[in-house]
């Protein structure tokens, strides 16, 4: 416009609608500004508890995702060979009838012949329920490939976890320790928090092989060697114990550090917690004048007492005689003995960690100084779970955050547990200034729900397919101890696989190990590309045929995605999903709500624009399919569809238990109830009126010590988050693990097969310990593959499927292999050279760039920028296809069988977490390093196994 | 040639905190999105799904490794100077400043830094200079500086696409759109900040509203009592390359002193137990704890 008439009051939108972002897992509140029926722009919702109005690069670029040319537009039926990407468009009726026929036949025959795996797992409350109704145990989301170690270690240790179920106390913490690659999850809340910390002058320490992102603004960068974090944390514990800088009062009040552990080598209860006849855990305590010293008394002035008794003085060291004459020691002593041992001295760990002794000592000292010498006290009265009143809240202002960098190692579960033990020793869980739980957490450690095992008369499973096993009896194994699940989750190979093992599904289905399936049904899980290890082998398996029958080894593949991702080409039937702006969604308290430490919150998505293509929301499709095959819970008694209105109706009307549904807000006929209450037909309307989010503030007196705060526990119980107001005891000593170890030692009805005994006995240690990466290199030693190789997502693309995004790809159209100039020099590599990166299973040709802020023993790249030609509607010569690359090609999905059970996943032996940060590589020079071009060369002997 | 107003009533501008910028590009994309559909849009993209996608961006984030920054409390002034010298003169055909030996920008934002030195994320947009050469070189009057608030704008109807302004601007803030044949640039979201159809709280530049670490601030830098002016005073905010004499209005806040090993206190003498003589567990035997 001519500026003589510059109009600065042009209305920016005809209408503004709120909804919830889906460009990553952060789930920020957004405002979608609509003009002339199109999205004009998207910004952050200032009223939203997650992002307070800010929005990241992905969130703003959502408009380009919504209008992406790579969107699918019609159901597709494969016409060519698998992988060729040849389809014909079909109508929804035909697509759904075909899927219903395959699925219905399976359900009649054997529901486990369906493997149903989802990638972006934000609808788990629906998808897991659907799988349960279908009756298949073969269901999971992508947690096994992502961060189950972090989640499971937290759940089994203190009934919460980093990231989703807890956060640093951004207002009060004075010291934040960021462990490992952590930039990728909870992006806006962490950035908002870091801004606050910087303004207050709190110290931020980044322990990470690579300094980027948050590490760049940290006060201190500790370039650690990948996978050695548990060793460094162990050395911190060593130092704290050696200098007696631990909060013993905190330990005996809130953890089981004082619980007595039975010492009776060879007995069936060796290593379990000593209990009285009624099953109450016991501790040793100082006798007072009133105590009888009969019975369990040993030595002057000590008694055996119920460990949950109050106003006692528990003992944390010493050997005590139980009523039956056997000895027991407090679990604290066992932990202290372990970490005071020489293997955890700073001198012992320094070389392996790549961190000098002085720095280790100083950081341990800083943790202690902050926790103890700079302790804070909040002038807030509170009542503990036992009814005792306290005038103030003492705070240990040290907080920690960890995510994928800790998780994605085969030692990730124990490493994460080590971090939580470190937090407990500092008295720094849910106190002012420390790490804080987010409601509905804490829950008991572990939470009480076990995975469903058997089928009811109506064919449904007796529990959700995923849960927390507590003893060998909860495993999904057959009479011979062999896996019942296709991915071998909850088997003796990976007993605590709380998120399933998505990365094993295709290989196991192809190999028929443990059995063959009929249909692989995937939703937004790009398992034909960046969500698989040994990607090229995986792609071959999807296309492989039986030599005898000539049929595909995986007979049917159904895939639902909104976009033309790499996996689409492998589907027999493609069910096109909508974009996130075209559908209802539910961010439910039943799976992964958006609470922060001071409020419980759940949220919805509402369609803000109508789809202009022949696509349907996946959730609607799932309900439709379930209705067609008559799944329990989806039909009325008269056989008619219960939810003809699709997912929006289900979100409001479905009840898991009386009064408990997908959404916690505005329940009850009049919308006046929270947590519990009958379905409210106006519920979605209320959500929309409130920015698509519901919040319940934690009462002031309930904000800290949630695990043992009467006001918190009563509040949480009133909302259905916990079943009782009893204090939640943190598992300093993880007795659950010992139960599995005892089974491996020959005790109990359910024991591991011979081939797994040694492995279970070693890794199911009730105290955390450190071990190096499992030997995925096979007979080749570490010397042949001297470098660690890791990946991370850039902040502007994390979780965004962003390479197709017209704006985000202008920030980075390709990735490089980054390495320290010293490492480059050792290998004769120049900045910008094309080189070969070699692992035991493949080699890839990649372009190297110098990066001084990388630990010398590590190379790294941005993950998932590299794309496969033909996908995402990118031009054939797009840099993502031509020069970009995945490290996945180099990662073995199996451990070498010469030293392990055949078909054992390259994963954490406890949880099945993909050990993709354990990758070891070497560099080989290319004869023409200046010639561009990425190439993948598989080791011929290894593609499929 | 285009003349400048003798003085502006206000000096609206941005204050950008380099201490908290994590280089996430949120500001750049929010800017792109708002302005693409705004009064000064579109901001065209060329070859968006092809070999060399490129487009008009009013705000770009560059990442540098900066060697030799001291971490001492007293080093602020010295640091500032060295930071500035690390951000050297950009050339018109490259959006990226040519590095000096101490700074090494990488176009696609991996953040090279020598160990124990610093990485720096640097958002770059028009600084709305008080005496901008980009305006005075304009042969048509298309580039102009508003008297009421100091914002530098381009009137597209008068722009002939000669690009003299881009050559005149030492900060690389001008974005030429080949598709539209006109020069484009940061408007400080002038179509937001006065827009009465928006809630008052939303009348801020899109980049400021988006910034997840709240590293961006907007206000009147001509008013010593404004929040932004106070912030600049408190944190030692500086103008970018003032030696050129164009008197930028925007200010950058330097990184705060980092508290790493160099500021650790001397190890206090702690009496650690001699584990060779006694079991370290013994000290806890007599500890009276309460549950």
Low-confidence stretches of chain B: 68-115
Largest interface: A-B, 108 and 92 residues
CATH superfamily of the domain at 149-247 and 342-437 in chain A: Dimethylsulfoxide Reductase, domain 2
**Count of helical stretches of chain A:** 25
CATH architecture of the domain at 149-247 and 342-437 in chain A: 3-Layer(aba) Sandwich
Kindly describe this structure.
The complex is a heterodimer of chains A (945) and B (291). Among the domains of chain A are: 149-247 and 342-437, Dimethylsulfoxide Reductase, domain 2 (3-Layer(aba) Sandwich), CATH 3.40.228; 782-938, Barwin-like endoglucanases (Beta Barrel), CATH 2.40.40.20. Chain A contains 25 helices and 37 strands. Chain A is globular, with a radius of gyration of 27 Å. Chain B is an alpha+beta fold and 291 residues long. Chain B has a single domain, classed as Alpha-Beta Plaits (2-Layer Sandwich), CATH 3.30.70. In chain B, 17% of the residues lie in helices and 15% in strands. Chain B has helices spanning 26-36, 76-86, 133-136, 164-168, 190-193, 206-210, 227-235; strands at residues 12-17, 45-46, 54-55, 60-66, 118-124, 143-145, 152-154, 175-177, 182-184, 216-220, 251-253. At the A-B interface, strand 3, helix 1, helix 6, helix 7 and helix 9 of A face helix 1, strand 3, strand 5, helix 5 and helix 6 of B.
In short:
The complex is a heterodimer of chains A (945) and B (291). Chain A is of the alpha/beta class and 945 residues long.
Features:
heterodimer; A: Barwin-like endoglucanases; seven-stranded mixed beta sheet; six-stranded mixed barrel; 17% strand; globular; B: 291 residues; alpha+beta; three-stranded mixed beta sheet; two-stranded antiparallel ribbon; 7 helices; 15% strand; elongated
Give the topology, please:
The complex is a heterodimer of chains A (945) and B (291).
Chain A: E1 15-20, E2 29-35, E3 38-44, H1 57-60, H2 62-66, E4 76-78, E5 87-89, H3 92-109, E6 114-118, H4 124-134, E7 139-140, H5 148-158, E8 166-168, E9 175-179, H6 187-200, E10 203-207, H7 213-217, E11 220-222, H8 229-242, H9 248-254, E12 260-263, E13 282-286, E14 302-306, E15 320-321, E16 327-330, H10 331-340, H11 346-353, H12 357-373, E17 376-378, E18 382-383, E19 389-390, E20 393-395, E21 398-402, H13 404-407, H14 412-425, E22 435-437, H15 505-511, E23 519-523, H16 535-543, E24 556-561, E25 573-576, E26 585-587, E27 599-605, H17 618-628, H18 646-653, E28 655-657, E29 660-661, H19 683-689, E30 693-697, H20 710-718, H21 735-744, H22 754-763, E31 787-792, H23 808-811, E32 817-819, H24 821-826, E33 834-838, E34 842-850, E35 858-862, H25 879-882, E36 920-925, E37 935-938
Parallel strand pairs in A: 6-7, 6-23, 9-10, 9-21, 10-11, 23-24, 24-25, 31-35, 32-34
Antiparallel strand pairs in A: 1-2, 2-3, 4-5, 4-25, 8-22, 12-16, 13-14, 15-16, 17-20, 18-19, 26-27, 27-30, 28-29, 31-36, 32-35, 33-34, 33-36, 34-37
Helix pairs in contact in A: 3-17, 4-17, 5-14, 8-11, 8-12, 8-14, 11-12, 21-22
Chain B: E1 12-17, H1 26-36, E2 45-46, E3 54-55, E4 60-66, H2 76-86, E5 118-124, H3 133-136, E6 143-145, E7 152-154, H4 164-168, E8 175-177, E9 182-184, H5 190-193, H6 206-210, E10 216-220, H7 227-235, E11 251-253
Parallel strand pairs in B: 1-11
Antiparallel strand pairs in B: 1-10, 2-3, 4-5, 6-7, 8-9
